[in-house]
Specification:
Number of strands: 9
Strand order of the largest sheet: 4-3-2-5-6-9-8
Largest sheet: 7 strands, mixed
Order of helices and strands: EHHHHHHEHEHEHEHEHHEHEHE
Radius of gyration: 19 Å
Protein name: S-adenosyl-L-methionine-dependent methyltransferase
CATH architecture: 3-Layer(aba) Sandwich
Helix content: 25-40%
CATH class: Alpha Beta
Number of helices: 14
InterPro entries: Ppm1/Ppm2/Tcmp (IPR007213), SAM-dependent_MTases_sf (IPR029063), SAM_mthyl_Trfase_ML2640-like (IPR011610)
CATH superfamily: Vaccinia Virus protein VP39
Keywords: Membrane, Methyltransferase, Transferase, Transmembrane, Transmembrane helix
Shape: globular
Number of domains: 1
Organism: Gonium pectorale (Green alga)
CATH topology: Rossmann fold
Structural class: alpha/beta
Family: Belongs to the UPF0677 family.
Length: about 350
């Protein structure tokens, strides 16, 4: 799993490439007009204000796997990161009977929670895993993970001859490397990823990768997980311009995004208001969205010389990654305000 969102600042301004970047049509984008958290006197604020969002996502990533549920993700390293970063919370989940199931019921209660919150992380993890395995099977030898956070794909899915580049803020990058070394994620004889310590609000993506061994003449897989909806619109546009500029023919960009309709209050998205207030309470508000249709995403990436390769609605994602779960508009089995797309140069 990548950003979600301790990496605030990295990519905040979309890198230096934001200047002059081609803008997508106005009817396929949305800018949030409500970045406020909940009342500081309320229960939601007290529950959500403390722990960083990416810690919460790390816990969510372990739940279906720990509970032995069907079609769970294969991230066997997430539990070890959780145990190291959150020892008290991990102890409770491991040793208190029923604690995992109770946590999940609380998170997904339709009255105050987010239906499908845990399945969202489970399915998203599987989808980005499939992006990496699919790219490697197609012969791509470079993988760049933007705002890497606690992503573990370099250590689980790496193969001989493939280079991974993890881009993150200097402090986050240093901490990640220390954790990886302490926990022994990289076995003897295997290659470490290249840790790129850079604040993309201050330096361009091209400058960050310069001198790291990255080869812009070779096809690359770029993953942007759990990040775009936290970026201002200009930053998001600038990031795609930068990614396109570094993409040789055959390169792929996989990303998840927020439905513009949810940000604009169009339609029914169970749990969205709670999620919006929860992340804002942590100082990590949702800022931008994309029209969640194949046509909308295609129009969003086209100005950057990119072709839409894949688009999945929440219902599509369930069918592909969690096929044992029936779809329900009233209580969706996966958070219904996120969608997923892949583009190709």
């Amino acid at each position: 799993m990548a950003a979600d969102r301790e990496t605030k600042g990295s990519a905040e301004n979309g890198s230096a490439a934001a200047a002059g970047a081609a803008a997508p049509p106005a009817d396929v984008i949305a800018v949030s007009k409500d970045n406020k958290g909940s009342s500081k006197m309320g229960m939601l604020y007290m529950v959500t204000k403390g722990q960083p969002t990416n810690y919460d996502m790390l816990v969510f990533r372990t739940l279906n796997r720990d509970m032995g549920l069907p079609n769970h993700n294969e991230d066997h390293l997430a539990e070890r990161l959780r145990d190291e970063l959150m020892p008290y919370r991990s102890w409770m989940l491991k040793h208190l009977p029923g604690s995992k199931a109770q946590l999940r019921r609380t998170l997904e209660n339709p009255l105050w929670g987010v239906p499908g919150a845990v399945n969202f992380i489970d399915a998203r993890t599987k989808w980005f895993d499939s992006a990496v395995t699919g790219a490697l099977a197609a012969g791509i030898k470079q993988v760049v993970i933007i705002a890497a956070g606690y992503d573990t794909r370099a250590y689980r899915l790496g193969a001989p001859g493939v280079r991974f580049f993890e881009i993150d803020l200097p402090t986050a990058s240093k901490r990640k490397r220390e954790l990886v070394e302490k926990l022994g994620f990289v076995k003897a004889g295997a290659s470490m990823p290249t840790y790129v310590a850079a604040d993309l609000s201050r330096t361009s993506l091209a400058d960050a990768l310069r001198g790291t061994g990255f080869d812009a003449t070779q096809p690359t897989l770029f993953t942007v997980e759990g990040l775009i909806y936290y970026l201002p619109l200009a930053a998001s546009v600038g990031l795609f311009a930068a990614l396109s500029g570094l993409s040789a023919p055959g390169s792929r960009i996989f990303f998840d995004f927020m439905a513009a309709a949810a940000l604009e209050g169009r339609g029914n998205f169970p749990g969205f208001k709670v999620t919006r207030k929860s992340v804002a309470n942590k100082g990590e508000p949702f800022l931008s969205g994309i029209e969640a249709t194949r046509e909308g995403v295609s129009a969003y990436v086209a100005p950057h010389g990119l072709r839409l390769l894949d688009f999945l609605s929440p219902k599509d994602m369930v069918g592909r990654m969690l096929p044992h779960l029936p779809w329900s508009d009233r209580r969706p089995p996966i958070a219904s305000f996120y969608s997923y797309a892949a583009a190709e140069k």
